[in-house]
Give the backbone structure.
Amino acid sequence: MKSFSLFSLSFLSVAAVGAASGAQVVFDDIPAPAPVAEQPAAEAPLPSEHQVNVIYFLGNDNEPVPGYETRLSDILLHLQGFYGSEMQRNGYGNRSFGLRLTPEGRAAILVLRGKLPSAEYGYDNGGAWKCLEEINEHFKAHPEDCRSQHSFIIMPTFYNAEYNDDTPGGVPFFGLGTNCFALDYAHFDLRYLGEDSDRGRLLTKWYGGFAHELGHGLNLPHNNGSATENAAHGTALLNCGNYTFGLKPTYLTPASCRLLDRSETFAPQGSTTTYYATHEAPAVEDVAYTFDGAALHLSLTTPADWLVNAYVQDPPYYVNQDYDAVAFPLAPTGAPADGKQTHSVTIPLSELTSLSHTAKAEQALDLLLLAPDGSRFRTRLPLDWATIKPNQEIKPDKLEFSEGY
Ligand code: ZN
């Protein structure tokens, strides 16, 4: 049974969460992004074996927002360029989520009409689940339309007493397993990106949200960068970057790019990997960590070809309270031997300055194991600063990993 995580139901309270966690980001030394019109056109990413299913989902009583084909294609290609350039900066080459293109070079969008009135597909009435059921029915009947296990579903804003093109909303807007939901409205148009205007700020809110939710749909958990990464690159997209995207420097962490490298729609053309086929956690041995007074040193052994990310965060730990989790990829140490690989990382306290409880109270140290086929398994080690003694090695009991984020 594949486990699902539901992210960002409290999307609108992200800023409050960030503020409460003491997250502070310095932007002053980093130039803001140039307006879209002044940016060089992004080089097309390398061809991909699988493509994200981009679906424009309607009720039985509404129509697409005018101009959606061009507006959404411009935004999808721009976003594909952002992910590609961040992958390149992190050493993975210009690889991004694959998109199916029309003969004119636009992002192809599959328009599906649901069986129910559009009001039935709302944020608050289980609309996402009803919509997914109908999309799955469509894919069963038209397997040629299903290009991967990842779907990006866009619905027009509601138009009622509460919502319209100036205050869009009402429809699902979150990541749900390998799917994510976003919305369309008349001014959802790249030409406003970075503009100091109501439409510019509204675009960052919804396009930044779209960029962040797509990250969830492509396997990314919430995470923040280290103090050094934040000082160099701005705000991590899977932290609170949905509020800065397009206005201020926003980036993908090395831990996020490592997950994308093994995400289905990033697979290069010719890939023969069957994605997400691993459902059993691997054997993990020799887990040990030591605190030397200034840094944690963590090491463990997994089967060869697996990778490990570590995340340190303040309580509370439940869904949507994890924006603050600072991510550290473990590096393989030496060559694999006997089919096993040792990994290690040093986590200096000085890189955790966005957290408020460091070395004062309990925190969580999560380990995420990444299979060659992109499956993920996660467990949590308590980091009880009251009992950690400097230079004393801690070896946790056997760890139980669960599948998912
Ligand atoms: Zn989120």
Q: What stands out?
A: The radius of gyration is 21 Å. Residues 7-8, 212, 216, 222 surround zinc ion (CB under 6 Å). The helical segments are 14-20, 68-89, 127-141, 198-217, 227-233, 254-261.
